[in-house]
Amino acid sequence: MRIGELSRRTGVNAHQLRYYEAQGLLEADRGANGYREYGENAMLRVKQIRRLLGAGLSSEDIAYLLPCAVGELPELLGCPDLLTAMRSRLKRLDEQMDRLARSRDALADYIDAAERTGSASHPPCDGAEPVPA
Predict the structure, then answer these.
(1) Separation of CA 9 from chain center
(2) Are residues 24 and 1 in the same domain?
(3) pTM above 0.90?
(4) CA-to-CA distance for 79 and 107, rounded, in angstroms?
(5) Do 34 and 5 have their domain in common?
């Protein structure tokens, strides 16, 4: 099938499909006319890619994981290297979440302190730019 048909059947635009191909996530043959020709397994591969992207994985992570992907969900075969890579990614996500939680708590503390000092009764801070929302 050509890229337009794959796009229609998966709901993924052609630009993204070309990106997946450039990242080594999706393979296409070239017809005599130069058009991309995808096999029937391309639909399953695109679904796998989309679900893995939805899990917060990078295209680099996905390129590493796809050879171990089975089915639409996909289910990943648990080879030791794969498990090590996924645990590493999970650890990075946990660290990011911890940093974000600390930042959120600090900002909430600043807001609470500003509200306690009666910000409505004070004039605007001289020269201070408002914090963007």
Answers:
(1) 21
(2) yes
(3) no
(4) 42
(5) yes
> How many Å apart are CA 67 and CA 80, to the nearest integer?
14
How far is Cα 7 from Cα 17, in angstroms, rounded to an integer?
Answer: 8
Whether 21 is covered by a domain: the verdict is: yes
Give the count of domains, the chain: 2
DSSP code of residue 127: T
Q: What is the DSSP string of 1-28?
A: --HHHHHHHHT--HHHHHHHHHTTSS--
47-101 tens-digit pLDDT: 999 999 998 888 988 998 898 888 888 888 877 888 888 888 889 989 999 999 9
Burial classification of residue 91, based on how many CB atoms lie within 10 Å of its CB (0-12 exposed, 13-18 middle, 19 or more buried): exposed
